Amino acid sequence: MDSEATMLAGALLEQSEKLLDRGIHPIRISDGYEMAAKIATEKLDKISETFAVDLKEKEPLVQLAMTTLGSKIVNRCHRQMAEIAVDAIMSVADFDRKDVDFELIKVEGKVGGKLEDTMLVKGVVVDKDMSHPQMPKVVKDAKIAILTCPFEPPKPKTKHKLDVTSVEDYQKLREYEKEKFESMVQMVKETGANLVICQWGFDDEANHLLLQRELPAVRWVGGPEIELIAIATGGRIVPRFEELTQEKLGKAGIVRELSFGTTRERMLVIEDCHNSRAVTIFIRGGNKMIVEEAKRSIHDALCVIRNIVRDNRIVYGGGAPEIAASLAVQEAAESISTLEQYAVRSFAEALESVPLALAENSGLSPIHTLAEVKSRQVKEKNPFLGIDCLRKGTNDMKAQHVIETLTAKKQQILLATQLVRMILKIDDIRAPNDMYM
């Protein structure tokens, strides 16, 4: 739950307490809140505008993402972060279905460097390096064998015990293992693969043999990374060497190792993939807290851009939609003749908690500022008037370009209402029957 939804839920609970003290039953309060939430969301639909989503003109989307990131810890480089978020969504978005597959966007972080070093990789970043230090650090036109079977001799499934009692027995065992390793490597080489990515590990002998046969390899790659690599490169995950064929190989323009300054830390970057829609946001930061906070911030921006792709209707922020919705709910309460009208009025008052908090946090007089903006919204019939937090000299949020997606704004109201109604149901269970009026 985000901060605005939490604030609204708190204000609704505060109003509920007052109504309960006046003897109004929790069910009546809950019903009134539901009616008010419906009126508020309908008002948001009316005052919303269409936002142009154009691949050729990304600046409006970047401005939208910057609005999201403006109050976050990344705000000193928030234009760069906004551009990364927009480019990531645009790379994976399906505009025909109006959907964004978040599975194709991986957010990876690494401590070290600075926030400005954060970049978008059109491919996959894996927190691994080549299994042998002498293996090539760059593989061009990579044909990747993606394996979930280890480079190990087959073992019986049941419990087994092997006694080696002589040098000859040991030599036979060693020859058997070498023969199996060579057979596995040959199967991979015959398919035309020039890089192996394996979910499991392999011992030094297998690793040395892979180096001798000029077959670079990466080991201990996790399951989710294996799946993402398969999606990105268009390859198939192969569980047995015998099933590996040329058609199942993944393809990438370049696979390279990234090294970080004077440290020994390395990561693998797979770029120019067969499926160019898979991307990775690689975040850098001075410490773990910065990296994790940047991840959360980027996720918020990604969600906003995804919402605008799904539904390109917007409202203007700065408390303007809450004030407009509050006025609409207050007006509707006058035509309700039942006891729910008290809950509807309370809902309208709770909606004002968001612009009040914005005014207070901006160093303005909360009550006077809110009263002035409400009055101007009614007189000028302009639902885009909000709190001028940045002191730009205008309360018109459309002019200030403060944008919020309609989907997110409606979700905030509905989520807060749903939470409070659940709490009121608990109160209803505890309430005496004679409270119902």
UniProtKB/TrEMBL annotation:
Which InterPro entries does this chain map to? Chap_CCT_epsi, Chaperone_TCP-1, Cpn60/GroEL/TCP-1, GroEL-like_apical_dom_sf, GROEL-like_equatorial_sf, TCP-1-like_intermed_sf, TCP-1_chaperonin
Q: Does the keyword Iron apply?
A: no
Query: What keyword terms does UniProt attach to this protein?
Result: ATP-binding, Chaperone, Cytoplasm, Nucleotide-binding
Its main subcellular localisation, reduced to a broad class, is cytoplasm
Single GO MF descriptor = ATP binding
Q: Cross-referenced Pfam families, in alphabetical order?
A: Cpn60_TCP1
Note the CDD domains from the entry. TCP1_epsilon
Protein location: Cytoplasm
Q: Which GO terms describe its cellular component?
A: chaperonin-containing T-complex
Give the family, as the similarity comment puts it. Belongs to the TCP-1 chaperonin family.
Name assigned to this protein: T-complex protein 1 subunit epsilon
